[in-house]
Design brief:
The complex is a heterodimer.
Chain A: H1 2-17, H2 19-44, E1 51-57, E2 66-68, E3 72-77, H3 81-86, E4 95-99, E5 113-116, H4 122-143, H5 148-154, H6 167-170, H7 179-214, H8 217-221, H9 226-266, H10 278-283, H11 288-303, H12 306-334, H13 342-364, H14 371-378, H15 383-391, H16 397-425, H17 435-441
Helix pairs in contact in A: 1-9, 2-9, 7-9, 7-12, 7-13, 7-15, 9-12, 12-13, 12-15, 12-16, 13-15, 14-15, 15-16
Chain B: E1 5-14, E2 17-27, E3 32-36, H1 43-50, E4 58-63, E5 66-67, E6 76-79, H2 91-101, H3 106-119, H4 135-147, E7 153-157, H5 165-180, E8 184-189, H6 192-198, E9 201-206, E10 209-215, H7 216-222, E11 227-232, E12 244-249, E13 252-256, H8 263-272, E14 277-283, H9 287-300
Parallel strand pairs in B: 3-8, 3-9, 6-7, 7-8
Antiparallel strand pairs in B: 1-2, 1-4, 4-5, 9-10, 11-13, 11-14, 12-13
Classes of the chains: A mainly alpha, B alpha/beta.
Chain lengths: ~450, ~300
């Protein structure tokens, strides 16, 4: 047992002290921050050209003489188009817009003419259009004697909220989870499990291969039991993963928050901005609709039965990680000096991981209670990815427990099986090993 | 005194092939013992059984009279033929790690390592990474790793493979010194000239089976052909009738005596004729010849 802790200690420290670990751990949050920063800056970019536009208001649509948006000045001109056209530059105008009298108030399409030496950039064009849009609607509202309150009353946003018919489930928290939000949370969970398994499982595999190819392994197992060496490695890499995730979990939200503050206070966010992720969502905070959605997401997150989800999530996480990391270790031990064969040997492990991921994204999220979802959340090679996603949709508790029990039993079995393969594999050099041969190793006696 | 190591009818089977087939031998305490055999004979498998890396299917192994158990790896220092180190680790850290895995406390390990670092004059290596060292330097580190926990039994599998002459001598001297201190050493190789120089007792393994066992001296005299080389002055003297000249070259002849004849008789015969003998020596077969002879014998059977 003492040796196991020595192995864990070394494997952990070696990884955590690596430059590449420190870099990826620190650079990932910074990278994310940078990415969002750039996206925000790009969206906020107003264009540096200031534009002055003469508006010839033949239809008497405008209520103001002068108006401006961030970088465009609109000036009502009474002079005729022909005069204006000739001394455009002297008056400092970039272009002229003509608003003819609006004859048919019910026509929802209106094409206006814009005259300029240079055609406007897309940004300027859309800004002019937005501005004109507002002016024309205001004019139409008045002409049609509409009142803005009544108008907005017409816009009803309808969404369906599902409630269970079963009496006992009615008050259960989370039964009113709106499926979009749940689907989102579920996909995130599936994705997280997928990445943890492939990322850190792969790390275990590479490390086993390295030990074998370095020929250190025989020195090691003359003092440590192969099982302890393998287990120590798996545990240490798991701890490395936890360290990394923990650092990210602290830093990423922190950086995003700082970033949002920096930008949120500094500039006026365009209200039609729709960014994925929290920075964008924060930018939209003024928008009442976004506010409502955000609140809903928070509510849904709160409504989840976390008391049950978190412990089972941890077990799924551990079970899935141990199972797959052990399999990866077994494969790593079987790979000879020829790296080419690693592909054929890792495929049988990657296949269930990828399959489970696709099932989660394409089936579980859409129909969490379908038979495919049910069976795949029972199958131990799939369940660590599928079940956490399904749990968002409140499956019956017995299903969760059954899935957990199946997972625990099979992870113990697969770790044991992998250890048997590992023990033989690490000592065989320079030989190509087929899956059939590897299977035979499991029957070798100590 | 009981032997430091004893194997009793050890068998290991892989896929119906008996890789180690009923092998028994003992290693006398404090001696250098040669475990010999051609490549693929089963030497490494036997060593792995002794070092508890794998278990025997049948038979038993005793270390110091005690049946092999999980405590024993700490008593054994093993330098495998396929050896290596963690390239990215620092020399000092690496050796500390290996020493502690053998059950030493970190304080103890540090003390012992300092001793070895001073002895090999490599004190400034402590904070170097393994990958910065040359191959020969790495072998030194490997050797320290093998002996740092002061094992009772040292097992060296092809210790000189890949070593340059300077490092070979260095390791040879260390082996001699450890031998002098009374540590028992098993020396596994297929290179006979090294065995002749170093080992007192040997066992020869071929195709998983024990072919020969005993002291180098006894084995040699067992395999000798009663050949004598005589170097004399003057013309070829008259020889006893029962003498068979194998080879003659100038003033040197090689003769074969009959099995029960004693070499003194021959010598006396020369002396009686008043012939000046400059050299008279028995030609013993080299281990290499014995090795090839016995290995071929087995494969013809």
């Amino acid at each position: 047992m003492n040796n196991l802790s020595l192995v864990i200690q070394r494997e952990y420290l070696v990884r955590v002290r690596k430059k590449s670990f420190i870099l990826t751990t620190l650079l990932t949050p910074i990278g994310i921050a940078l990415f969002y920063g750039i996206v925000i800056l790009m969206v906020m970019y107003q264009g540096d050209d200031h534009v002055k536009i003469a508006v010839i208001d033949e239809g008497n649509v405008l209520q103001l003489e002068r108006d401006s948006t961030s970088n465009i000045l609109f000036q009502k001109e009474t002079a005729s188009f022909d005069i204006l056209k000739n001394n455009l530059a002297e008056k400092g105008y970039n272009g002229i817009v003509r608003i003819p009298p609006i004859r048919d108030l019910y026509n929802s399409k209106l094409v206006l003419d814009y005259y300029a030496d240079k055609s406007p950039s897309l940004e300027i064009k859309s800004k002019i259009e937005n501005w004109l849009d507002k002016q024309v609607s205001a004019y139409k509202m008045e002409a049609l004697e509409l009142d803005s309150k009544k108008l907005s009353a017409l816009k009803t946003k309808i969404s369906i909220e599902s409630k269970s018919l079963q009496e006992e489930e009615k008050d259960k928290p989370g039964s009113s989870v709106s499926s979009e939000v749940a689907a989102m949370i579920a996909s995130v969970m599936g994705m997280l499990m997928f990445f943890v398994i492939t990322l850190y499982g792969g790390m275990v595999m590479r490390s086993v291969m390295e030990e074998k190819m370095n020929r250190i392994v025989e020195v090691m197992i003359s003092s440590v039991k192969p099982f302890h060496l393998m287990l120590g490695k798996i545990i240490a890499v798991g701890l490395v993963g936890l360290t990394q995730i923990l650092i990210w979990a602290i830093f990423i939200p922190l950086i995003l928050l700082v970033l949002t503050f920096a930008f949120g206070l500094g500039g006026d966010m365009p209200s039609n901005l729709n960014l994925p992720g929290s920075a964008g969502a924060m930018a939209e905070i003024n928008n009442p609709e976004t506010m409502a959605t955000a609140q809903k997401v928070l509510m849904e997150i709160k409504a989840q039965n976390w008391g049950m989800i978190i412990p089972s999530l941890i077990i799924f996480f551990l079970g899935g990680y141990f199972m797959y990391a052990a399999l990866f270790a077994a494969v790593g031990s079987a790979i000879g000096d020829d790296l080419g064969e690693s592909q054929t040997l890792t495929l049988p492990i990657m296949l269930p991981v990828i399959l489970a991921f696709y099932i989660t994204i394409f089936i579980v999220v859409r129909s969490p209670d379908s038979s495919v979802s049910f069976w795949s959340s029972m199958f131990p090679l799939f369940s660590p990815i599928v079940m956490p996603a399904r749990m968002v949709f409140n499956p019956p508790i017995w299903e969760v427990i059954l899935s957990l029990v199946l997972l625990i039993i099979s992870s113990i079995f697969l770790v044991w099986l992998s250890a048997r393969i590992y023990r033989v594999g690490i000592l065989l050099y320079g030989k190509k090993n087929s899956l059939k041969e590897i299977w035979k190793w499991t029957f070798y006696k100590g | 005194m009981n032997p430091i190591l004893e194997l009793k009818e050890v068998v290991k089977v892989y896929e119906k092939k008996r890789v180690v087939d009923n092998v028994s031998f003992g290693v006398t305490r404090g001696k250098i013992f040669g475990l010999l055999g051609p490549n693929g004979a089963g030497k490494t498998t036997i060593i792995r059984i002794i070092t508890t890396i794998i278990g025997a299917d049948e038979g038993a192994v005793f270390i110091d009279g005690e049946k092999l158990n999980a405590k024993h790896p700490a008593d054994i220092g093993y330098m495998p033929e396929e050896r290596g180190l963690y390239k990215k680790m620092k020399v000092g850290e690496h050796l500390m790690y290996l020493a502690q895995l053998k059950g030493m406390s970190s304080k103890e390990a540090k003390k012992k390592l300092t001793y070895w670092f001073e002895k090999f004059e490599i004190k400034d290596w402590w904070n170097k990474r393994i990958e910065e060292l040359s191959k020969g330097m790495q072998q030194k580190v490997q050797f320290i790793a093998t002996v740092v926990h002061e094992p009772k039994l040292l097992i060296l599998d092809e210790p000189f493979s890949g070593l340059d002459p300077i490092n070979t001598n260095l390791i040879k001297d260390e082996i001699d010194e450890l031998h002098y201190k009374g540590i028992s050493i098993i020396f596994s190789t297929h290179r006979m000239e090294q065995v002749e120089a170093i080992c007192e007792n040997i066992v020869l393994i071929n195709q998983g089976k024990k072919v020969l066992e005993g002291s180098v001296k006894n084995i040699k005299s067992h395999y000798k052909d009663n050949l004598f080389q005589i170097h004399f002055e003057g013309a070829l003297p008259e020889l006893p009738s029962n003498l068979n000249i194998k080879q003659q070259q100038g003033n040197t002849i090689i003769v074969q005596l009959e099995n029960d004849k004693d070499s003194n008789g021959l010598l006396r015969h020369f002396l009686d004729q008043n012939i000046r003998i400059q050299a008279f020596n028995e030609i013993l077969p080299s281990l290499n010849e014995i090795f090839i002879k016995s290995v071929n014998q087995v494969s013809y059977e």
